[in-house]
Design goal:
heterodimer; A: 96 residues; mainly alpha; 5 helices; flat; B: 250 residues; 11 helices
Chain lengths: 96, 250
């Protein structure tokens, strides 16, 4: 059972790791990297290392993507967020 | 010879050589899932008795190899300081308030519950770090996540008000200082650096672990503040680049 689980999780780690490398757009890469991080979290849980799993969880879902997104935003590389361009200061602004 | 061909000619031998070295290294590793090394057996047997913490990982991180953890924390603090210095020198002192209304209904709906819940999760992960899995580093990052949620689900203005630079700077430096001071206190009392001076308490209680509890909290503070500070520095000129705000002021 554990061996089968390990094979599945390790395969996911390998496939998603390659996916991160093959994704060229930095914004998409941030999202794909999140899934890669999640696969690592499951991997550490399967190996019964909860402390490392929580560390990987917070790094791959909070710290790393936020710094990455801030850098993408600041350097202006990659895809611009189309939502931000279209956003108009209309009705939702009135409530504030 | 074409460029692609030259690359392939370069890649094939180098790739084979690297794969060979990697395979050679992997052969020498202990086999996967090998029960326990001598170190692991020692810590599993003695850590709880010696340090009164039920999370052996925390005892290792903040006590048995507390010196290494201090190095890691100082690396993080200097990394944050370097980033702050670099980014602060490239912009002026003027501050403007950005108006960036939240357009996602889901975020507005989740806002009241989400931020306190994430903050509580962070504090819980820090404070129970030496009893259950978790600890200062993990909880600190979650706490910083709660601060960033006020920006994501609220506004940049509120985020700035709730995390003023002087407070974050002080928390960042204070966390690192407490770690160093606890170590020096051990020296001053005639023991070794990071020697435990605080009563160990009852195993499983919040008040247990001696210096581990203090170092754990200090790390949580420094990590949370460091992450918020980095994000501050990255987004300090955010107000000037939000398209609506810039257009409105023109």
């Amino acid at each position: 059972m554990t061996t089968a689980l390990l094979v599945v999780v390790l395969t996911a780690v390998g496939v998603l790791g390659v996916c991160v490398v093959l994704t060229h757009d930095p914004l998409r890469q941030t999202v794909v990297n999140g899934f890669f991080g999640l696969s690592l979290v499951i991997f550490f849980v399967v190996l019964q290392a909860p402390d490392v799993a929580i560390s990987e969880l917070v790094v791959s879902t909070v710290a790393y993507p936020l710094v990455l997104l801030a850098t993408v935003y600041r350097t202006g590389k990659g895809t611009r967020d189309p939502q931000r361009k279209r956003r108009a200061p209309s009705d939702s602004e009135a409530g504030r | 010879m074409s460029r692609v061909r030259r690359r392939v000619l370069f890649f094939v031998p180098v790739g084979i050589a690297m794969a060979a070295v990697l395979a050679w290294g992997l052969v020498g590793l202990p086999s996967f899932g090998l029960p326990h090394s001598d170190y692991a057996r020692y810590f599993a047997q003695h850590a709880t008795g010696q340090r009164h913490t039920t999370n052996v990982v925390a005892a290792i991180v903040f006590d048995y190899r507390g010196w290494d953890t201090m190095g890691e924390e100082l690396i993080m603090v200097s990394g944050v300081m370097g980033t702050a210095l670099l980014l602060r020198s490239t912009r002026g002192e003027e501050h403007r308030a950005a108006r960036d209304p939240v357009t996602s209904e889901l975020l507005t709906w989740l806002r009241p519950g989400m931020i306190p819940l994430v903050l509580l999760l962070g504090l819980w992960t820090i404070s129970y770090g030496y009893i259950t899995p978790g600890g200062g580093f993990q909880g600190g990052v979650i706490g910083a996540g709660a601060a960033l949620l006020t920006w994501l689900a609220g506004s940049y203005q509120r985020y700035q008000v709730l995390t003023p630079d002087p407070l974050v700077d002080a928390a960042e430096g204070g966390g690192a200082f407490v770690y160093l001071a606890v170590g020096l206190a051990g020296l001053a009392a005639g023991g070794t650096y990071l020697h435990n001076l605080i009563p160990l308490g009852t195993t499983g209680d919040l008040a247990s672990g001696g210096t581990i509890a203090v170092l754990n909290a200090a790390t949580g503070l420094a990590v949370a503040a460091g992450l918020v500070l980095i994000f501050h520095e990255f987004l300090e000129d955010y107000t000037e680049t939000v398209p609506d705000v810039a257009a409105e002021e023109r």
